Amino acid sequence: MRSGIRTWARGAGVALLVVAVAAPLAGATPADTSAQPGMIDIADLPPDSLPWMGGASDEPGWNTTGPCFWQYNTNDIPVESVWSAGFNTSETASAYEHAVVLPTEAEAVALAGALRQHYAGCADRTRAGNTGDIVTGYDHGSIAVEEGATAGGVHIAYVPSWQGYRNYLYGVGRDGNTVVLVEWESNWTQPDVPAFKETVKAAVNKLY
Q1: What per-residue string of b and e applies to 179-196 under the rule 16 or more CB within 10 Å gives b?
Q2: Pick from 19, 56, 159, 169: CA 20 to 30 A from residue 101's CA?
Q3: Contact 160, 174 (CB under 8 A)
Q4: Which residues face 184 on adjacent strands?
Q5: Predicted pLDDT at 70
Q6: What is the pLDDT of residues 147-181, one digit of tens each?
Q7: Are strands 94-101 and 149-157 parallel, antiparallel or unpaired?
Q8: If DSSP codes are grouped into helix, strand and coil, which group holds residue 16?
């Protein structure tokens, strides 16, 4: 699938998205949200010129989140239902995974939709915080895995150009009542989109 591209050179205003997770359907049997799902490890990450470090946390919670997750309202998501993994190289890149286990599949469907909408606004929020820089948003399309996944990204070309650039990638996927989000960022390398989509696919497949 060819990626769609949206480019902005200037902008103003930041929209704060506040979305409540859907209430459980009447008669639905809530799932156990306390068990940690499977998480990705270093072998699942996109290749880099330097070795990756890090891994999954043993305790629930958001821990470190990526820049495209900024401003998402997590008040309706119990922290004990969230599992995190964080990775980085010594200089070149960082990556984050969060798996959110919800009581019902209907709630997971709602959360996945809200997250995709939020991530789609990452370029706008980045542009608002980088006035004068050139911000380009990318839709990298869908990923065939379980109940589906999608990927996108943002590129910042700093002005003046000697300040360099920064790249973000993000993905959202779902397996049953669990939603997973994956982020990658670097100001050293161009994003390997096919490899990142494989990372998102691995994240969904490893949940259960």
Answers
A1: bbbbbbbbeeeebebeeb
A2: 169
A3: no
A4: 95, 169
A5: 87
A6: 999 999 999 999 999 999 999 999 999 999 999 99
A7: unpaired
A8: coil
- For residue 33, name the pLDDT band (cuts at 50, 70, 90): confident
Cβ-count burial 98-131 (b if 16+ within 10 Å, e if not): bbbbbbbbbbbbbbbebbbebbbbbbbbbbeebe
pLDDT 10s digits, 68-127 = 998 899 999 999 999 999 999 999 999 999 999 999 999 999 999 999 999 999 999 999
- Residue identified by tokens 């989140």 is 65
Going by C-alpha positions, the residue among 37, 171, 172, 29 that lies closest to residue 106 is 29
C-alpha 115/C-alpha 78 separation (Å) is 16
* Angle, CA 122 vertex, CA 168 and CA 52 arms, to 5°: 25
Order of all β-strands in the sheet with 4-8: 4-8, 134-143, 149-157, 165-175, 178-186, 94-101, 82-88, 53-56
End-to-end C-alpha distance for the chain, whole angstroms = 28
Cβ partners under 8 Å of residue 32, min gap 6? none
pLDDT of the residue at 7: 33
In order of 14, 38, 62, 93, 176, the CA distances from 57 in angstroms are 32, 11, 10, 19, 22
Q: Contact at 8 Å (CB) between 177 and 104?
A: yes
Rg (alpha carbons) of the chain, rounded to whole number: 17
Q: List Cα–Cα distances, 96 to 4, 66, 130, 190, 197, in angstroms.
A: 24, 6, 23, 18, 14
